[in-house]
Amino acid sequence: MSKQTGTKKYGSLFEYEGVPKMGEAIPIALQHVLAMMVGCITPAFIVSNSAQLSPQDKVLLIQMSLVIAGIATFIQLFPIWRIGAKLPMIIGASFAYVPTMAAVAATSYKEFNDPKLAVATILGAQIVGGLVSFIFGMFVKFLLPLFPPLVTGTVVFVIGLSLYPVGMRYMGGNGNVQWGHQIPNGDMPAWGDWRYWVIALITLAVVIFFANFTKGITKLASILFGIVIGYIISIPFGIVDFGKITAASWAPTVATPLHFGLKFDPAVIVGFVILYIVNSVQAIGDFTATTVGGMDRVPTPRELQGGIMAYGATNILAGLAGSPPLATYSQNVGIVGTTKVVNRVVMAIAAGIILISGIFPKFSALLTTIPFSVIGGATITVFASITMTGIRLISKQKMTPRNMTVVGLSVAMGMGFVSVCEQAKHFQVDFIPNGVYTALGTSPVVIAALTAIILNLVLRAKPEDTQERPE
To answer: What dihedral angle (degrees, nearest 10) is formed by the CA atoms of 20, 22, 26, 29?
Structure first.
């Protein structure tokens, strides 16, 4: 319960408003930062490599990913006018756009032989996509009948399932390995080295222990303790690259607006618009998972409208500032669901740390030395929490034959189609156009969401199909 002392309101970690004790808030804020940090900088790393940016521009792209992520998180927490959900969300650079961005950057570089122009093509399409998302958010309350708990629960469930391979790849030592290909990792051991798995499993064991056998702040910050202990253990194993810290500057730096410029390519814009619409739907799933998991309620139409409008607006800002596309971060949604900590001061502290990390290269370099295996071992339980939140939403309605068809077929289509697309790419079989693959074949959430929406409309619900199960 919150309490009033003089003119200042104090609140607990489990209330959205109020100021909790800093000794409790800061560890959980750090937990959120560490869970998202590697994922936030990786899209910029991939794009900069594909576009063959200079080392200086590569650093700027990574820094702006963090700066804009911090600003976008603040806007979600403290809305400007109607822009912002006022929900405990963390925003960061999105993996959903990585395949498209990498392909566009590589193609543009080959065509124009200009690294900045390659990035400018992405940023131009990003601004148009952000505008479409903003408009989508303005009218989302009229579209809510398309997203009953059965549909949003299915989307959240598939989000969780789709994150499991990411978590396992992290545990194996590199978050971006797929079909034997991975981002160069300096002199570090190759993906799958036994050292990565040992460290990941130790980290996971620490998280499970603190989450289930302790109380108070150690229980709430179990992921943070897992990351810290996993990091310390990683040092003698030789998989922590301290060279990143040495090479980073102490001086605060950020990119000037339009540093990379803007280029509007119609073909690229069409692909990005589709992705932005789909990811707006996925954001509805993340907002729902946050409120259901952390607040025991579904989000209001106003929260969804403000959240998606902010998603669009901050992506426009990101395009102008020189940051890759943004999205709600499912791993942080999972932390909220696991800990039930929803206080926005906690999230604001996290946003401040993310923002500062982007401004000061030395600080961000320190955070990026955390091995992938440690992040994977610490967050795999978070991904499981997201999946269970989806199941909780789905189970709100009785599992009638009609509802089982909607959920089961949507999950099957989403997971199955992406699996087939990945195998086809591996064997170099182009059974669908590359643009279709980019829009639909890189994330199971896309196909699952579209299938669930269509089936929910086509299979007319009977009274027993919409009857809620007793708690």
So the answer is: 20
State the number of CA atoms in the 13 A half-sphere of 57 facing the CB.
Answer: 21
CB atoms near residue 323 (< 10 Å)? 33
Q: For residue 288, give the DSSP letter.
A: H
Alpha-carbon distance values, 202 to 40, 64, 226, 377 (Å): 24, 33, 8, 8
Other Cβ atoms less than 10 A from the Cβ of 290: the count is 28
Q: Which residues, including other chains, have CB under 8 Å from residue 162's CB and lie 6 or more apart?
A: 414, 415, 418, 443, 444, 445
Structure token digits, residue 443 = 């994330």
Enter the DSSP assignment of 144: G
Collapse the DSSP code of 122 into the 3-class scheme (helix H, G, I; strand E, B; otherwise coil) and give the result: helix
Terminal CA-to-CA distance of the chain, rounded, Å? 24
Are 70 and 364 a contacting pair, CB within 8 Å? Answer: no
Could you report the per-residue pLDDT of 328-383, keeping only the tens digit for each? 987 788 889 888 999 999 999 999 999 998 998 887 777 778 888 888 898 788 77
Contact indicator for 333, 293 with CB cutoff of 8 Å: yes
What is the phi/psi pair of residue 5, to 5°? Answer: -130, 105
Contact at 8 Å (CB) between 353 and 332?
no
Cβ–Cβ < 8 Å for 281, 154: no
DSSP 298: P
Q: Which among 124, 392, 159 has a CA at the least distance from the CA of 258?
A: 124
User: 276: which 2 tokens?
Assistant: 């932005």
Place of tokens 């009229």: 142
**Cβ count near 469 (within 10 Å):** 9
What letter does residue 145 receive in the DSSP assignment? G
| Contact in structure between 332 and 35 (CB atoms under 8 Å) | yes
The pTM of this model reads 0.75
Q: Are strands 8-10 and 3-5 parallel, antiparallel or unpaired?
A: antiparallel
Quote the DSSP letter at residue 459: S
Give the E-state strand segments of 6-159 in sequence order.
8-10, 91-93
Q: Which residues are bridge partners to 9 per DSSP?
A: 4
How confident is the model over 412-428, as pLDDT tens digits? 998 998 888 878 877 77
Return d(Cα 376, Cα 388) in angstroms, integer: 18
**Chain centre to alpha carbon of residue 296:** 22
**3-state SS assignment for residue 379:** helix
**Six-digit token pair at 277?**
């619409």
